[in-house]
Amino acid sequence: MLRAPAAESNKDVILEVLRRFATSGKRVFEIASGTGQHVAHFAKALEDVTFQPSEVNGRSLHSIVAYLDHNQFQNVRIPLFIDVAKRFNQWALPADFGPHMVDIVLSINMLHICSQTAVDGLFESADQLLNETTGKLITYGPYSEDGFISPQSNIAFHASLKNQDPEYGLKDIKYLERLANRSNLRLSEKIPVPKNNFILVFSR
């Protein structure tokens, strides 16, 4: 079971917002589930919600499985190998997590460390997965606003990401709004949270 300090520090903040939307009977599809810490934490707190984790990284997939084996959750599915940069029609999905059957698509700390194709893929796949009237895409992470990044720690973080890969870096909220609009979603909430991050809620 891998452990990321960032996941440990932000899991309660994200859960607090998730509780508002992930009510009894809802289905949550997590894209880029990482170590599995988040889904394990959320599943414990929201026992009447069904979670479908996914990952593209093999080591992370093994870690998620280890968390599930350790906790013996009844409300978490076996993680899927999902590359969000691939076209949605190439995904292998369980029958009850198919097109327009998902209530919430959740993406934590992904948008600033992935390719542009994956950014586009997140919004396009959310459009395909989410309930057509009530679905929500919830993302967490650092962002720029109107082309500006603050504070200095986020400026330095953005520069270091760009050095790793030109497609990495903090994405602008207005830009993400435009992507959302193309995918039949609108930015309904922008929630500031600790450590200069935001939770963005995109709704149908």
Automatic annotation (TrEMBL):
Superkingdom classification of source: Eukaryota
The entry assigns this protein to a family as follows:
Belongs to the UPF0585 family.
PANTHER family reported for this sequence = UPF0585 PROTEIN CG18661 (PTHR20974:SF0)
- The name on file for this protein is Methyltransferase type 12 domain-containing protein
Q: Which organism is it from?
A: Caenorhabditis latens
